[in-house]
Design goal:
12 helices, about 475 residues, five-stranded mixed beta sheet, four-stranded antiparallel beta sheet, single chain, alpha+beta, disordered N terminus
Length: about 475
């Protein structure tokens, strides 16, 4: 499967994130005035009468009206009655919704704009005090100013009464429009943060899904296929991962088929070769009964040896075939390893003696218990002893003892041969050691080999401490 390079830049993760940044920066000049407008609209909805009052009668706040009224009164210092009346008429045009009048020093009400029945014609001290008490924080809004600026001018006072609905009410407790502007900016910033979070959250989710597919094998022991998302960088990685899984499954299937073919071939060859070997062995036995020359007897002995080696090789092949396919029957029991080693060594004494090998067996009297299969462990010892005779017989020594190996007690089989790195005349396919390793693995044991040109030591000990006594 071939992967084409990414040519559509718009499908890239980098493109998507750059687009988010561009949207954020490009829309800032647009979003700021939009925020102002939105803030103004919210304030308009919350205070609809406030804007209507300003547009219908822009009289300003109470402070503005009071300042204007006092300035006008102060400007009438020493003015005549006609001048005062004219000033009030002028102010009436400015405040058409207000009631204006003035009172002279004798307490007589002069010009009223418009005429009002509630205003006394002649003011007494009680009327003045009652009027002042009624107008404190009341509706209409009332402003009283001494004509001439103060009471020393002795020109009386002038009054303005304006219904509060025509005024701009200044509420110091009400927050300004900036609070809504800040809210909208916070919403916009939150939207950008949310988009960034969703972008990276999607990437994280897809990477975790890919990690799960890699680390959680399926029923066949291989990584599981994952769902392929968008065709961006991660999507192509998912596609490559699925392609790798398909290749692994195909390779595993081919390997399994080849393994089955090999096992079948070994099994059939082993069985097919045993019959002619048995026939050859019987004929060699018959030949030995005949009178032969010394050279003929030597050739006969050599043929018997090679047939025995070939028979042993087939045994190895069958054992290896059974072990590698998991069909080798084993029954683990708690057995004394020292007893099994002594029995196997006793069986091999004649062979070692014939080969001129001195056996040095130093095993402790106390038993050493491991969870092992008796037949399988004897097979391990037989293979190791046979290798010692074949490849290390020149050392004329076979040592069997026990030594500490880490936290375990190890069985040690040593020789004084040329070492495993040197060339041997009896070199074979190495099936003996492979069978040893497979048997030891099935019994929970480990083999360590230390080999030099002065000899080889093989350590056998439990892989887990629970196997020991």
């Amino acid at each position: 499967m071939r992967f084409r390079p990414v040519r559509k830049f718009r499908k890239s993760l980098l493109t998507r994130y750059v687009l988010i940044l561009v949207i954020a920066f490009v829309f800032i000049p647009v979003l700021i005035p939009v925020s102002f407008f939105a803030s103004w609209s919210i304030n308009l909805l919350m205070n609809p009468g406030h804007l209507w009052q300003q547009t219908k009668r822009p009289y300003g706040t109470g402070m503005d009206i009071e300042t204007t009224w006092h300035q006008a009164a102060a400007g009438l210092k020493g003015a005549s009655v006609e001048t005062i009346d004219g000033k009030l008429k002028e102010l009436k045009k400015r405040y058409p919704d207000a009631a204006l009048y003035w009172v002279d020093t004798a307490g007589q009400t002069r010009l009223q704009l418009p005429e009002q029945g509630t205003v006394p014609k002649q003011w007494s001290l009680e009327d003045t005090i009652a009027f002042m008490k009624q107008r404190v924080d009341a509706d209409p809004f009332t402003v009283v100013a001494f004509i001439g600026g103060n009471e020393r001018a002795k020109q009386g006072f002038m009054v303005l009464e304006l219904p509060r609905k025509f005024m701009v009410i200044q509420d110091v407790d009400r927050q300004s429009d900036s609070r809504f502007y800040g809210v909208f900016l916070a919403i916009l910033l939150g939207a950008f943060v949310l988009l960034s979070y969703l972008f990276f959250s999607d990437i994280r989710k897809r990477l975790l899904r890919l990690e799960a597919g890699m680390t959680r094998p399926g029923p066949d022991g291989l990584p599981s296929l994952i769902h392929e998302g968008r065709p961006d960088e991660i999507g192509r990685l998912e596609q490559a991962f699925n392609h790798m899984v398909f290749e692994l499954k195909d390779s595993r299937q081919r390997e399994s088929e080849e393994e089955e073919l090999r096992k079948s071939l070994i099994s059939h060859l082993s069985h097919d070769l045993r019959t002619p070997l048995t026939v050859l062995g019987s004929h060699l036995y018959s030949l030995r009964q005949e009178s032969l020359s010394d050279q003929g007897r030597q050739s006969l002995t050599l043929m018997e040896t090679k047939i025995s080696d070939l028979s042993g090789l087939m045994d190895h092949l069958l054992s290896y075939n059974l072990l590698s396919s998991g069909r080798y029957a084993m029954s683990l029991e708690r057995l004394d390893v020292m007893r099994l080693v002594r029995e196997s060594a006793a069986a091999w004494y004649p062979v070692w003696e014939k080969a001129g090998i001195t056996a040095d067996v130093e095993l402790p009297e106390q038993p050493l218990y491991w969870n092992i299969d008796a037949q399988g462990f004897r097979r391990v010892l037989d293979n190791l002893f046979q290798n010692l005779v074949r490849h290390a017989g020149s050392g004329r020594y076979a040592g069997i003892t026990v030594e500490p190996r880490g936290d375990a007690i190890a069985l040690v089989i040593g020789d004084r041969g040329p070492g495993m790195e040197s060339a041997s005349a009896a070199v074979g396919a190495g099936l003996g050691l492979q069978i040893v390793d497979l048997l030891l693995r099935e019994m929970g044991l480990t083999r360590d080999t230390v080999s030099t040109d002065e000899g080889t030591k093989i350590y056998i000990y439990p892989s887990i401490k629970l196997n020991e006594s």
